[in-house]
Amino acid sequence: MTTSHDDASTLTALTDAVASGLPSAIAELASLVRIPSVSWAAFDPENVHKSAEAVVELVSGLGVFESVSISRAAIGTSETLGQPAVLATRAARNGRPTILLYAHHDVQPPGKDDDWESAPFEPTVRGDRLYGRGAADDKAGVMAHIAAIRALVETCGADFDLGLVLFFEGEEEFGSRSFKNFLVQHRAELAADVIVVADSDNWDIDTPALTVALRGNVTFRLTVRTLDHASHSGMFGGAAPDAMLAMIRLLSTLHDDAGSVAVAGLTSTEGDTPHYPESQLSQEAAFLDGVTSIGTGSIPSRLWYQPSITVTGIDAPTVANASNTLLPAVSVRVSARIAPGQSARDAFEAMERHIRDNAPFGATIEIDDIDKGDPFLVDTSGWAVAEVKRAMADAWGVEPVETGIGGSIPFISDLVELFPSAQILVTGVEDPDSRAHSPNESLHLGVFRRAVLTEAVLLSRLNSRG
């Protein structure tokens, strides 16, 4: 390890290198944002290919990798290939560890342009934030890795001993459906001592966070059918059960009067939580005046350690096209978050059992298009956790907070299964106002700079670690 004086000198040099490289990194991030790399099936996959090619050019330009390629793996047991991922490798030397840096270059659909203050794929700086789809989630993660490596090279030279692997996925926003097969296909190249997943957020714009708990997810399409065909609501309403009524009655059984999940078999867990008042939740989640929170327990426990169920979409006639008919069938998209300690498989079985047991009026139930991802708890006892927290404190000037997140990164369970000895660190470039997945997604440029510096410091110290 370096001495205290050497460490301080290196920190100063890295700080200067990150600052001087920041304008270029932001410009390159903006170029990536302009590529509408939505990985969902309904969107043009060519844009994801263009994004992968742009990332390959950036990675190749670093000049430190022995191999840089685009690769795809099969989805499940089918012959259908997933979206293109970028893989780059550099072998460790002289007993140094290998670190794998993960991010994803695909993005969520933009939604309605009218909901954006500027075009979703036209990166725009307003104040200290860069707006655009993927500006934060997770093309900023891609560029944070690239900018950190540049700072390392500028400070330590290109002939460093640290082993490096870059894995930039192309379908995280569409469920990472080929992820496990990709890991198996490239197991030797991806093997690492430390894995950094840059796809989470920070406590606020001034305080870094290390994510130590992730909820899992279960999503599916639920269809309720009650009639063979639509019928006149005036002629048969009040006696014939329409599918919308049955769906509303069924969905209402998923929560109790406080808004907590009321599905038998879905479990919660315990964990330490920092102070987070309802007023902060109200501000960060954009409550309307008079709206109150749902659930019980501390706010972080509800977000990190308890299950939640949300209906994220409904297939039904629009209000403008509504006719006076009883609907024969209605479909919804159900998205459940699973607390650490329960498998996604067990959670899905509990939800399916509840839905079928509570179907009203003898309605027919169909459940399909199922995705499952297990929750995750980080082992915080490893040396890598201590190293990244020290790097965060040096880069941000304040001690980091250990947090959970309410969202899911389901593929982490696959990383744990295939690389059980690797230490996994979940970091990120987002903050509570990044609005990932939402209109007006943005990246706070100060957070981006500090996140890049954190990783550059971590890389530098691992390069000195035997």
Q: Would you give an account of this structure?
A:
Helices cover 33% and strands 23% of the residues. Strands 1-2-6-3-7-17 form a six-stranded mixed sheet. The chain has a four-stranded antiparallel sheet with strand order 11-13-9-14. The model has no long low-confidence stretch (mean pLDDT 95). It has helices at 4-33, 46-60, 139-156, 179-185, 187-190, 233-236, 243-252, 278-284, 299-304, 344-357, 383-396, 412-418, 445-463, and strands at residues 67-71, 85-90, 98-104, 124-126, 129-131, 163-169, 194-201, 209-214, 216-225, 231-232, 308-315, 325-326, 329-338, 364-373, 376-377, 401-405, 423-430, 442-444. It is α+β, with helices and mostly antiparallel strands and 466 residues long. Helix 1 crosses helix 3 and helix 3 (139-156) packs across helix 13 (445-463). The longest helix is centred in the first third of the chain and has 30 residues, at 4-33.
Approximate helicity band: 25-40%
The N- to C-terminal Cα distance equals 8 Å
- The CATH topology of the largest domain is Aminopeptidase
How much is the average pLDDT?
95
Would you tell me the structural class of the helices and strands? alpha+beta
Strand content bin: 15-25%
Number of helical segments with 4 or more residues: 13
Write the CATH architecture name of the largest domain: 3-Layer(aba) Sandwich
CATH-defined superfamily of the largest domain: Zn peptidases
Biggest sheet: strands side by side, in what order?
1-2-6-3-7-17
The dominant shape is elongated
The number of E-state strands comes to 18
Give the uncertain stretches in residue-range form: none
